[in-house]
Design goal:
With 354 residues, this protein is of the alpha+beta class. The protein is built from 13 helices and nine strands. A six-stranded antiparallel sheet has the order 1-2-3-4-6-5. Helix 4 packs across helix 13 and helix 9 crosses helix 11.
């Protein structure tokens, strides 16, 4: 998890090997795109922590996103243990073991379409609840999505800026993050995983369209490209209207095994059309329940699965199910773990040969 990069030298920023606020700071570590993170040991509890020095301009984060992260109930979010603005803005998180999707993409190149879609499905599901309450991730990018050693995906730096320009929607220069800009960032992440290339931020609609030509040349399914085209549209009004719409389309594509039988899936625009999309998501996934504030929790997720399993008894086997989605995520984790291990062994073999 640790990596060797230059220690920060700004005035007031702690260095490795020093003690700061009861934490013994060790290596600078990979933990999101925002700020500088250290592996640290709590000198009283003797527990490993991640100490993140936050950059300037994040005052609103302490009032909006941080209190929800401290509750520890947000599904798929890094758990925030403490935070303060003095003597410097900082946050302390529980550590994670694994690597970011950005590091995986840099190491193994382009993902298989099925694996990329499964990863995006899980990220979208994590962000759906907070997004329904008007809380978005302005720094969403592949570096802020962590693939754990246990195969689980965690979103880092929720609410903090820091995404590369290729993940920022064109309209963000004129306003705050919205559901449309978050859908754009999700699409940019899917592009990164499918192509192995960093997305670039288009200046015109023509540039946005040209970016998808790489996928056509690589022979990807037209339906995958249609999803990307909707996510990365220069016109925010042409993007998927909400997380649930995108969840339904990707879940349906995975359920129909688009790589093996691409013709079995109906037109993407028809599948995601108004009327039935939100109802289908509320019935099958139930991530937007108002009783728990719209924020998905692990307990709520378990209740949803139990209710969905009971409701499926006697249904036709062709019905899109939560079980199929969960199965797809399990397969994605296994495939990514295997790819990660192969990449690690390959790197070690190169070192041994040298």
């Amino acid at each position: 998890m640790s990596r060797q990069i230059e220690d920060p030298t700004r005035g007031g920023v702690p260095r490795t090997g020093t003690e700061f606020l009861g934490l013994r700071l060790s290596d600078v570590t990979e933990f999101g795109a925002h700020g500088t993170s250290f592996l640290a040991v709590d000198t009283k509890a003797h527990e490993v922590r991640v100490f993140k020095v936050l950059e300037e301009g994040v005052q609103s984060w302490f009032e909006s996103h941080a209190p929800l992260l401290r509750r520890g109930e947000l599904r798929g979010m890094a758990r925030l243990l403490s935070t303060a603005t003095a003597p410097i803005p900082h946050a302390v998180f529980e550590p994670l073991h694994g690597t970011s999707l950005e590091a995986l993409a840099s190491g193994i190149g382009a993902f298989k379409a099925r694996s990329a879609l499964r990863a995006i499905l899980e990220v979208t599901g994590i962000l759906a609840g907070p997004g329904s309450a008007g809380l978005f991730h302005p720094g969403l990018c592949a570096q802020n999505v962590f693939f754990g050693a246990d195969g689980r995906i965690t979103v880092l730096d929720w609410g903090l800026p820091g995404a590369p320009s290729g993940y920022r929607a064109p309209e963000l220069d004129d306003g705050r993050s919205t559901v449309a800009s978050e859908i754009y960032a999700i699409g940019a992440m899917l592009f990164r995983l499918l192509t192995g290339f960093e997305p670039h931020r288009p200046r015109t609609a023509d540039e946005s369209f040209d970016q998808l030509g790489k996928l056509l040349q690589a022979g990807h399914s037209p339906k995958v490209i249609t999803v990307l085209e909707r996510c990365l549209s220069f016109d925010k009004g042409a993007r998927f209207a909400c997380h649930s719409e995108l969840l339904f389309v990707i879940g349906r594509m995975l359920h129909e095994a688009i790589e093996d039988a691409p013709d079995e899936l109906g037109d993407v625009d028809a599948v995601s059309g108004a009327g039935g999309v939100r109802a289908e998501i509320e019935k099958q996934l139930d991530w937007l329940d108002e009783d728990d504030g719209g924020f998905p929790t692990d307990e709520r997720d378990r209740e949803r699965k139990r209710a969905a399993k009971k409701a499926r008894q006697g249904n036709e086997p062709t019905e899109v199910s939560t079980e199929a989605t969960a199965s797809a995520l399990d397969a994605m984790r296994a495939e990514l773990v295997q790819s990660f291990r192969k990449g690690t062994r390959g790197a070690r073999n190169k070192e041994d040969g040298a």
